[in-house]
Write a structure and sequence with these properties.
By secondary structure, the protein is of the alpha/beta class. The chain has six helices and five strands. It has a five-stranded mixed sheet with strand order 3-2-1-4-5. The chain is globular, with a radius of gyration of 17 Å.
Length: 204
């Protein structure tokens, strides 16, 4: 059986750290632009010598590559955690604040306290007692953020697959809650569910 990595030729140039000599946690979210499902975020602290030829921004990887990377990251990370914010909470506090809250919840669960946070994006709500750096497209620049992007995405996809089995008419197994034509058509025909974000524009 051929290795899934055999024909992947992208050469990653991701950095191992932002500031040498301190414990950094990379943070990223998944599901911010979806019409349904929670927003997930992950925080990951990698060992200083961690490297993997495939690890990159999760959006640049196939589903199988993300699935293969997840146990590697989870077994080799010094600490990792996933935070979740429900659709109801998203409606209550808006998606931007929900993304920050999901990251905070992930950081809360880390078994090793980081000395700095590397945040994917250009904004963040400060986490008490830990300085942070916002890095635009950071999941394509730093290994720890890329690892967080993989965990957030795979954990969320796993959840969406589960609720797809409960309500297959919305095709969450393939669209993962994003606003595809089939997803919007299903909402139009069958209405919204408790998994949908009511403050989002569900129909055009």
């Amino acid at each position: 059986m051929q290795n899934r990595f055999t024909f992947f030729t992208f050469e990653t140039m991701l950095k191992k750290y932002h500031t040498k000599g301190i414990i950094e946690a990379g943070c990223d979210e998944a599901g911010r632009g979806c019409l349904a499902g929670p927003v997930y975020a992950a925080a990951v602290i990698l060992p200083p010598d961690f490297e993997h030829e495939l690890l990159n921004d999760s959006k640049q990887l196939t589903e199988n590559q993300r699935k293969d990377l997840r146990p590697i990251i989870e077994s080799q990370a010094l600490a990792w955690a996933v935070g979740i914010v429900s659709p109801k909470e998203i409606d209550d506090i808006n998606i931007l604040n929900a993304s920050f809250l999901a990251m905070h919840r992930a950081i809360d669960q880390l078994t090793t306290r980081p000395e700095s946070l590397l945040i994917d994006g250009n904004r963040f709500s400060p986490y008490f007692g830990i300085p942070h750096q916002c890095i635009i497209k950071g999941d394509g620049k730093y290994l720890s953020i890329a690892a967080a992007s993989v965990l957030a995405k795979t954990h969320r996809d796993e959840y969406m697959q589960g609720i797809h089995e409960e309500l297959p008419i919305y095709h969450w197994d393939s669209n993962k809650g994003y606003p595809t034509k089939a997803h919007r058509a299903a909402i139009k025909e069958h209405g919204a569910t408790d998994y949908h974000r009511k403050t989002f524009r569900l129909l055009k």
